[in-house]
Amino acid sequence: MRDAVHWRSAARTDPGKVRSRNEDAFLDCPQLGLWAVADGMGGHAGGDIASQLIVANLAELPLYPDLDERSKAVRQCLRWTNRRLSEELTVNAGRDPGIMGSTVVALLLEGNRGACIWAGDSRCYLWRGRRLYQLSKDHSLLQRLIDKQKMNIDEALSHPAARALTRAVGAAQELRLEVLELAIHSGDTFLLCSDGLYQDLSGEALGDALSLASPRLMLECLFEGVLRGTARDNLTAVVIRL
């Protein structure tokens, strides 16, 4: 993989302080220029199965030489996983397993190009020039209320179903993915994370962590910040430094 030697990454997951089961999963694969975070839908049977299936299937993808081919392969893989989860529900219908779903956010890097692919509210951030950019946009009722109903964040959060997802792998027959392509600059730092991490940290705290010297130190700072608090959800992060 061209330029893979320049990509340093680290990943970590933690169940948090409240939940007994960790339904998050991650993929940290710098040799393939591929990273991902998947967050199983909390409260549903099989959320951990869904997230683990996503990262396992992504890890098995062949290394295509072109970013466009690789992006297409990731999207096809996620749609195939979506169908697989739907079939699993059909087979187990008598046991009423509920939804087997998961968010996903994946990052592909090749040379000076990158692609972010996601469904749900796990996020991709970019730290560039001492500024933090949120590259992904949440597929959630909260974000829809802000966009469509023009509510402010406090008004939207007061909605009883604000945290409900509007897209996820395994949540519907057809999976709609969002894709963002971008140019990569030397010194760029990316953060992929589940909502259990970013919900408990301010943008300033995220930026302070991502300005540290190495992905390992960044992760230590991020997790320490969340675990000092209530840490009510599973938390997972992958940091990639160029």
Automatic annotation (TrEMBL):
This is Serine/threonine-protein phosphatase. Residues 8-242 form the PPM-type phosphatase domain. It comes from the Bacteria. Signal peptide: none annotated. CDD domains: PP2Cc. PANTHER family: PROTEIN PHOSPHATASE 1L, PROTEIN PHOSPHATASE 2C. GO terms for molecular function: protein serine/threonine phosphatase activity.
